[in-house]
Automatic annotation (TrEMBL), chain A:
Domain spans labelled ABC transmembrane type-1: 141-331
Compartments where found: Cell membrane
Pfam name, any one: OppC_N
Residue numbers spanned by region Disordered: 1-26
Ranges annotated as spanning the membrane: 51-71, 147-168, 206-224, 262-286, 313-331
The keyword Protein transport belongs to this UniProt entry's keyword annotation: yes
Protein topology in the membrane: Multi-pass membrane protein
SUPFAM superfamilies recorded: MetI-like
Family stated for the protein in its record: Belongs to the binding-protein-dependent transport system permease family. OppBC subfamily.
UniProt-recorded name of the protein: ABC transporter permease
InterPro entries: BP-dependent_transpt_permease (IPR050366), MetI-like (IPR000515), MetI-like_sf (IPR035906), OppC_N (IPR025966)
Organism of this sequence: Lactiplantibacillus plajomi
TrEMBL record, chain B:
Positions of the ABC transporter domain: 10-258
UniProt name for this protein: ABC transporter ATP-binding protein
GO MF assignments: ATP binding
Bilayer topology: Peripheral membrane protein
Chain coiled-coil ranges: none
Subcellular location, record wording: Cell membrane
UniProtKB/TrEMBL annotation, chain C:
Position of the signal peptide: none
Protein name (database record): ABC transporter ATP-binding protein
Family statement: Belongs to the ABC transporter superfamily.
Keywords recorded for this protein, A-Z: ATP-binding, Nucleotide-binding, Peptide transport, Protein transport, Transport
GO MF entries: ATP binding
Main localization (coarse): membrane
C-alpha cells in the first residue's frame, strides 16, 4: 500500500496552488442524458426475446395491414372448382407445398385433379369455397387485430380514467367505484357476449368489441387505481399541490406519465387476450359472421376439414399462436425494461 | 487492535461496472485489512464505493460488475475465486451482513422466528425445534421485549428500530467471524440509532466478531470504530486508528468531513461545507479525484495521483500535502483545535505502536 | 423578548387526527400551539412518528385540520375560500421535502420541475424569460444551466435536494417549511444544504419552519426550537437554551442520543433514558413559560420543579 514517496519524480511548479475558479467543474455529470423513453428502448433492445417478438409483431402488422397492396387476391372471391386445394408454391417440390395430397394412401396431384392450369398456385391453398387461404388469413388477421386494438383502446380509456378518479378521490367515491368494478368483473365475458348477441341482431365487430370492452377495462382500472393511490402521496405530487396546481393538471402532468409504464405493460397483455377472446367467440359461432373472416372463423372453418386437409386449420392457428406469444413475450420484456430496479 | 491477526486482507481491488454509457470505475485500487475482534469503519460520501467493496466481500456484486484486479483473502483463500456454491456456505455463517433498509432485508411473508432460525438450519444443520429455541435466545439478546409473544409475528408488525434489531439477530445467529454492517442506522432516527449502536457494541463483546462498519456519519464512527478508513471516489484516501483520524487527520477530504459537522463546542454560524459533488466515476478525473473540491489543490493534483504517505505506523494518507517538498499549509481552525488535542493526548503515555509492517 | 417582532405564523391548539371515530384513530398532532416570527427559523424536532410532518402539512393546508387555528400573515388559513385567495396563499408558503428521490417527478426535465411554480402562477413573460428564471434559480442553488435539460435520476441526493429548493424558490415565497431536508443526505452534503438555506434566508428574507430529528443540526440553523413527542410539543425555547440547558426530560434524552464526532467524548457518553409513562398520566398539562421565551408543557404541580431546574441552569434568578 504505502508506496515509497521518494521515487516520485516531481517537476518544479508542481506544488503551485491551483486556481479553484478556473479548476475543474465539481458538479459535472459525465453520462449522456437519456429521456425515459430512450432508456426503456435501450433496455428493451438488449432483451433478445422481447426484441425478436417486437420485430415479429411489426412484420405481422405490416403483412396484415399492407399485405393486400402486394398480394392482390380477393379474400372473398369464391372459385368452387378450385375448392380445397392444398398449398402449392412455384418451383418447390416438397410434400405439403407441391399441391399434392394423400387420398386413401395414394399421392394425388390435387391441382391436376381440379383441372387447374400450370400457372395456378395457391401459396397456402384454398378453403372449401375455393377462396385463397393466404389472402383470407391476412384479412382475418387484420380483422382480429382491429378488433383487439379498438377494444383495448376503449378498455384503456375507460380503465385509466376510472382508475385515476377512483384512486385520486379516495374515500366514499373510491369505495363506490370499487364496488362497480367488483360487480362487473364477476360477470363472465361469455354471458355478456350472449347478451350482446341477442341485443345486436347480427353479431359482428361492433358486438365483439363492446363485449370485450365492457368486461375488460376493470383490470386496467384496478391497476391504475393501485398505482394512483401510491403516487398521490409521493412528495412530487404534494409539491405540485403546494404550488397550487389543479387536480386535472396534476393528473395530466404528474400522474399519467408515471402511470404510463403500468398502462403500456397492461396493454401488452390486454391485446392478446382480446385477440384470443375474439377468436374463441368466432370459433363457437357468436362472433364475426361471414363473409367477414377473423382468425377465429378461419380456425373454425378449417377444423371441419381437419382430418383430410389439416393445413386449413394449422395455418390460421399458427398465426394466432405466434401473435399471442409475441405479445406476451414483448409484454414481459416491457415489464423488465420499465422496471427502474433493472437499471443499466 | 490488541491482536494483529488479519481475518480479511483486501489487496489492490479494482471493480468496474459495465453500463450503456461506459465503464463505471467504482473501486479503484483499494487495499485494507480487517483484524480479529476489531471494528473497522469505512467512511465516505454516497457513491464513494463503500457498498460495492463490502458486496465484493460477500460475493454479491451485481451481474454487470467485473473485478478487474486484486484479491480478497479470507482464511488464506481468495474469495474472488470461489464459486457461488462455496460462497453460500460462507455467507451468513462466517461472514454476515446487515443492510441499510430494515424493511427490504426481511421477508414480509415469513414469521420472524423462522427467519432467524433459517440460517441455523441451513448452516448448522439444526432441527427446526432447536433452531427456533436458539432464535428465541437471539431475540432476547437483541432486546426485543416479550420475545416469546413476538416470535411468531411478521415484520410489518414491528417498528423500524425493532426490525433492525431482528435483522441483527438474523446476522448474528450463527456467531459469524465477520459482520458487515452497511449503514445499519442511516434509515433510523437518532434515538433509535443510539440504541442500535449500543446493541452492536454489546454483542460484539459477547460473541467476539470483527465488524466492518460502513457509514457516512463521522459521529457514529467516533463511537464505534477502532480503526477508520476514509473512502473517496472509489479509493481509500486515509486510514488510521480512530484517534488518529479524528484528532490528527492529514487528508483535506477528512478535514472537510470533520469540518462540515457541528460539534458540541463549535459556535453557531456557517458550517464549512465541502463544495460541489463527488466526481462521476464514469469518467474519473486525471490526478487526485478530490482536486476539484479541495481548497488546497496544487498543480500536481490535476496530473498525478498521490501515493500513500506514512504518518505513523498505523496511519497513512494519500495526499500530496504530505510530500516533503510540498508547502506547509494550515488546516481549518477546527482541525488545528483537534490536532492540539492530539498532541496533548500523546504526551502522557508513550505512543502504542502496532506492529503492522506487512504492507 | 422577541414579541415585538411580527408573527408571520400563529398555530393555536392545532389537532390533526386521522381515521377519526374508527378503531385505528391516530392523533398525529394533538393540541399544538406555537408562533413563528418573521425572518426567524423555527426548528421542530422529535423522533419518527411524533407528528412533525403532519404538523407541517397541516400548516401548508395539505390536510384539513381536525380542529385549531392556523393564522398566516394575519389571515386564518381555514377561511381561504375562493380560488384566488388559495392561489395567493400557495405562493407565500412553500415546502422542501425529506426524500430527494421521491420529491422530483422522474419523468420531467429539471427545467420543467423548477419552472412548475412559474407556470402555475404565470410568472414568466415568455419562454426566454422562463428559461432565464430557471437558469438563475439553478445558479442560486449552485447548479449549472446545462443541468436543466437532464432528468432527476442523473443527480446525486444533494443535487436533487437543491433542485427541490430551486422549485420552492421559484414563486418567491415568504415562508418555507423544510421537512427533514437533510436527513436523507450525507453529512458532508448536509452542511451544503444548511448553508444554502441560511444564505437564502438572509438574501430573500425568508422564514423557515425547519423539521428534523437530529438536534445538533437544528441547533445551527434555528433561532428557536420546539420539541415534539407523541403529537404534542413538550418544550419551546431559544435554540441555544434548549440545546445547552434542556428543561424537559425528553429533550435531555433526545440530546444525549446525538452522536458526536469525537472519540473521546463518545467513549464517555451516557445515554439518558426517558420514562415516557409520566406523559401518559391523566394530568392536565399546558404550555407554561418557565423562563422568558422558554415554555414547557407541564401540569400545575410540575411547574415548581421546572422552575427549580431553570434556576439551577441559570436561566432565571431564584
Ligand atoms: N394519512 C395518515 N393516515 C393515518 N395515519 C397517519 C397519516 N399520516 C401520518 N399518520 C400517523 O401520524 C403519526 C405522525 O406522523 P408524521 O409523519 O407526522 O411523523 P414525523 O414526526 O414526521 O415522523 P418521521 O420522522 O418519521 O418523518 C404517525 O403515527 C403516523 O403513522
Ligand atoms: N450495479 C451497478 N451498476 C453500475 N454502477 C454501479 C452499480 N452499483 C454501484 N455502482 C456505482 O459504483 C459506485 C459506488 O457505489 P456504492 O458502493 O453503492 O457507493 P456507497 O459508498 O454509497 O455505498 C457508484 O458510482 C455507483 O453508481
Ligand atoms: S492530493 Fe492534492 S487535491 Fe488531493 S487532497 Fe491532497 S492536496 Fe487536495
Ligand atoms: Mg451504500
Ligand atoms: Mg416526517
Amino acid at each position: 500500500m504505502a508506496d515509497n514517496p521518494k521515487d516520485i519524480a516531481i517537476k518544479p511548479g508542481d506544488f503551485e496552488p491551483l486556481d479553484q475558479q478556473a479548476g475543474p467543474d465539481n458538479e459535472r455529470i459525465a453520462a449522456p442524458s437519456l429521456t425515459f423513453g430512450q432508456d426503456v428502448w435501450r433496455r428493451l433492445k438488449s432483451n433478445k426475446t422481447a426484441f425478436t417478438s417486437f420485430i415479429i409483431l411489426v412484420l405481422m402488422f405490416l403483412v396484415a395491414f399492407g399485405g393486400q397492396a402486394v398480394y392482390h387476391h380477393d379474400p372473398n372471391a369464391q372459385q368452387p372448382k378450385y375448392a380445397n386445394l392444398p398449398p402449392k408454391i412455384k418451383g418447390v417440390d416438397l410434400y405439403g407445398f407441391n399441391g399434392h395430397l394423400k387420398q386413401s394412401g395414394k399421392d394425388v396431384d390435387a391441382y391436376a385433379a381440379a383441372g387447374a392450369g400450370k400457372d395456378v398456385h395457391y401459396v397456402l391453398g384454398t378453403d372449401y369455397l375455393g377462396r385463397d387461404l393466404l389472402a383470407r388469413i391476412m384479412y382475418g388477421t387484420r380483422i382480429s387485430l382491429e378488433i383487439a386494438l379498438i377494444a383495448t383502446l376503449i378498455d384503456l380509456t375507460i380503465g385509466v380514467g376510472f382508475g385515476i378518479i377512483s384512486g385520486w378521490k379516495g374515500g366514499r367515491v373510491d369505495l363506490f367505484m370499487q364496488r362497480v368494478i367488483e360487480i362487473l368483473s364477476s360477470i363472465p365475458q361469455l354471458v355478456v357476449m350472449v347478451l350482446m348477441a341477442t341485443a345486436f341482431t347480427k353479431t359482428g365487430m361492433a358486438s365483439i368489441i363492446a363485449a370485450i370492452a365492457i368486461t375488460g377495462w376493470t383490470t386496467m382500472a384496478r391497476l391504475t387505481r393501485a398505482q394512483t393511490l401510491q403516487l398521490k402521496n409521493q412528495d412530487f405530487i404534494l409539491a405540485a399541490r403546494t404550488l397550487g396546481e389543479s387536480a386535472p393538471k396534476i393528473a395530466w402532468k404528474h400522474l399519467l406519465p408515471n402511470l404510463s409504464s403500468v398502462i403500456i405493460i397492461q396493454t401488452m397483455f390486454t391485446i392478446p387476450s382480446a385477440i384470443f377472446f375474439e377468436a374463441f367467440l368466432s370459433y363457437i359461432g357468436i362472433g364475426i359472421s361471414s363473409p367477414q373472416a377473423s382468425l377465429g372463423t378461419l380456425i373454425s372453418d378449417g377444423q371441419k376439414n381437419f382430418q383430410f386437409l389439416p393445413y386449413q386449420m394449422w395455418y390460421p392457428a399458427i398465426v394466432l399462436i405466434v401473435l399471442m406469444l409475441a405479445f406476451n413475450l414483448l409484454g414481459d420484456g416491457m415489464r423488465d425494461a420499465f422496471d427502474p430496479k433493472s437499471k443499466r | 487492535m490488541k491482536n494483529p491477526e488479519n481475518i480479511i486482507e483486501v489487496r489492490d481491488l479494482e471493480i468496474n461496472f459495465h453500463t450503456y454509457a461506459g465503464e463505471v470505475k467504482a473501486i479503484r485500487d483499494v487495499s485494507f485489512d480487517l483484524r480479529k475482534g476489531e471494528t473497522l469503519a469505512i467512511v465516505g460520501e454516497s457513491g464513494s464505493g463503500k457498498s460495492v467493496t463490502t458486496r465484493s466481500l460477500m460475493g454479491l456484486l451485481a451481474p454487470n460488475a467485473e473485478i478487474k484486479k486484486g484479491s480478497i483473502m479470507f482464511h488464506g483463500e481468495d474469495i474472488i475465486k470461489k464459486s457461488e456454491k462455496d460462497m453460500q456456505h460462507i455467507r451468513g455463517k462466517d461472514i454476515a451482513m446487515i443492510f441499510q433498509d430494515p424493511m427490504t432485508s426481511l421477508d414480509p411473508t415469513m414469521r420472524i422466528g423462522m427467519q432467524i432460525a433459517e440460517p441455523l438450519m441451513k448452516h448448522k444443520g439444526l432441527k427446526k425445534k432447536e433452531a427456533i429455541a436458539q432464535a428465541l435466545e437471539m431475540l432476547k439478546l437483541v432486546g426485543i421485549t416479550d420475545p416469546e409473544g413476538r416470535i411468531n409475528d411478521y415484520p410489518y408488525q414491528f417498528s423500524g428500530g425493532m426490525r433492525q434489531r431482528i435483522v441483527i439477530a438474523i446476522a448474528l445467529v450463527c456467531y459469524p467471524e465477520v459482520l458487515i454492517a452497511d449503514e445499519p442506522t442511516t434509515a433510523l432516527d437518532v434515538t433509535i440509532q443510539a440504541q442500535i449502536l449500543d446493541l452492536m457494541k454489546d454483542l460484539q463483546n459477547r460473541i467476539d466478531t470483527s465488524i466492518i462498519f460502513i457509514t457516512h456519519d463521522l459521529g457514529v464512527v467516533a463511537g464505534m470504530a477502532d480503526r477508520v478508513a476514509v473512502m473517496y471516489a472509489g479509493k481509500i484516501v486515509e486510514y488510521g486508528t480512530v484517534d488518529e483520524i479524528f484528532f490528527n487527520p492529514q487528508h483535506p477530504y477528512t478535514w472537510g468531513l470533520l469540518n462540515s459537522m457541528p460539534t458540541l463546542d463549535t459556535a453557531s454560524g456557517s458550517l464549512r461545507a465541502i463544495p460541489g459533488t463527488p466526481p462521476d466515476l464514469l469518467d474519473p478525473p486525471v490526478g487526485d479525484a478530490f482536486a476539484a473540491r479541495s481548497d488546497y489543490a496544487m498543480k500536481i493534483d490535476t496530473e498525478k495521483e498521490p501515493p500513500f504517505f506514512k504518518v505513523s505506523d498505523t496511519h497513512y494518507a494519500a495526499t500530496w500535502l504530505l510530500h516533503p517538498d510540498a508547502p506547509k499549509v494550515t488546516p481549518p481552525a477546527e482541525i488545528v483545535r483537534r490536532q492540539k488535542k492530539f498532541a496533548a493526548m500523546q504526551k502522557p503515555k508513550a505512543p502504542i505502536s502496532n506492529s503492522d509492517s506487512k504492507e | 423578548m422577541p414579541d415585538a417582532r411580527k408573527k408571520i405564523l400563529e398555530v393555536h391548539h392545532l389537532k390533526q387526527y386521522f381515521n377519526v371515530g374508527k378503531r385505528d384513530e391516530v392523533r398525529a398532532v394533538d393540541d399544538v400551539s406555537f408562533d413563528i416570527y418573521e425572518g426567524e427559523t423555527f426548528g421542530l424536532v422529535g423522533e419518527s412518528g411524533s407528528g412533525k410532518t403532519t404538523a407541517g402539512r397541516a400548516i401548508i393546508h395539505l390536510y384539513e385540520p381536525t380542529s385549531g387555528e392556523i393564522i398566516f400573515n394575519g389571515q386564518d388559513v381555514s377561511k381561504l375560500h375562493t380560488k384566488k385567495q388559495m392561489h395567493a396563499f400557495r405562493r407565500q408558503i412553500q415546502m422542501i421535502f425529506q426524500d430527494p428521490y421521491a420529491s422530483l417527478n422522474p419523468r420531467m426535465k429539471v427545467k420543467d420541475i423548477v419552472a412548475e411554480g412559474i407556470d402555475i402562477h404565470g410568472l414568466a413573460k415568455d419562454d426566454a424569460d422562463r428559461t432565464k428564471q430557471v437558469e438563475d434559480l439553478l445558479e442560486t442553488v449552485g447548479l449549472n444551466k446545462d443541468h436543466s435539460s437532464r432528468y432527476p435520476h442523473e443527480f446525486s441526493g444533494g443535487q436533487r435536494q437543491r433542485i427541490g429548493i430551486a422549485r420552492a424558490l421559484a414563486v418567491e415565497p415568504k415562508f418555507i417549511i423544510a421537512d427533514e431536508p437533510i436527513s436523507a443526505l450525507d453529512v458532508s452534503i448536509q452542511a451544503q444544504v444548511v448553508n444554502l438555506l441560511k444564505e437564502l434566508q438572509v438574501k430573500q428574507n425568508l422564514t423557515y419552519l425547519f423539521i428534523a430529528h437530529d438536534l445538533s443540526m437544528v441547533k445551527y440553523i434555528s433561532d428557536r426550537i420546539g420539541v415534539m413527542h407523541y403529537g404534542k410539543i413538550l418544550e419551546i425555547g431559544p435554540a441555544d437554551e434548549v440545546y445547552n440547558h434542556p428543561l424537559h426530560a425528553y429533550t435531555k434524552s433526545l440530546i444525549s442520543a446525538v452522536p458526536v464526532p469525537d472519540p473521546e467524548f463518545e467513549r464517555n457518553r451516557i445515554q439518558v433514558p426517558y420514562d415516557e409513562s409520566r406523559e401518559k398520566d391523566d394530568k392536565k398539562r399546558r404550555m407554561v413559560e418557565i423562563a422568558p421565551g422558554h415554555f414547557i408543557r407541564a401540569s400545575e404541580d410540575e411547574v415548581a420543579m421546572y422552575t427549580q431546574r431553570a434556576v439551577d441552569a441559570g436561566l432565571i434568578n431564584g
